[in-house]
Amino acid sequence: MTKKKNQDISVLFVCLGNICRSPTAHGVFEKMVSDAQLENRIYIDSCGTGDWHIDHAPDKRSASAAKARGYDLNHLRARQVQHTDFNQFNYILAMDNNNLSDLQAMCPSDYSGELALFLDYAQDVDIREVPDPYYGGDSGFDTVIDLVENASQSLLAHLQKHYDF
Ligand code: 4NP
To answer: Helices in the chain by DSSP H: which ranges?
Structure first.
C-alpha cells in the first residue's frame, strides 16, 4: 500500500522477521485507526530488520491468533527495513531491544522522528519488549496480541492528542 496524499503521520512497526510481531502490530493498529476513521491521516507499515522472509505472508500462527480477535493480516507481506524509511516515517517503533539497536545503527543523526520501543506506549505492563513468539507455543502469539492491543490503544490516543484529530 502506498502513502496517500493527505496522510500526515506515518508509523512503521519493526521486528526481526516481519512475519509475527510487527505484522500483528500493523494489522491491529490499522483496524483501530480505521475504526477511528483516521485512515486518511495515518499511514501504517511494518518491516523486519532481517531478510529471510521478504515477500512472505505473516506466519499462520500469528494470522490465526489475530483473526480470532477480529484482525486481518492476510494482505500483509514481509519486507526488510531500508535507509529511506527514516525519510518517510515519523514514528519507527521496535518490538525488542535488538530491533531497536539495529535501527539505531542505521538511523541518520538528523532523524527528526521518534525511534523507540513500541511498548513504551503500553500501559500497566512491566515489560518493555514484545517477546518473540516464533520458536514457542501458541500462547506466545496471544501474548503478542495482548501487548500489541495495549500499546496500540495508547499510541492512537497519543496521536489524537498530539495532532489534535
Ligand atoms: P518476528 O518473529 O520477528 O516477530 O517476525 C520471527 C520470525 C522469524 C524468525 C525469527 C523471529 N526467524 O528466525 O526466521
So the answer is: 21-35, 60-68, 85-88, 97-106, 138-163
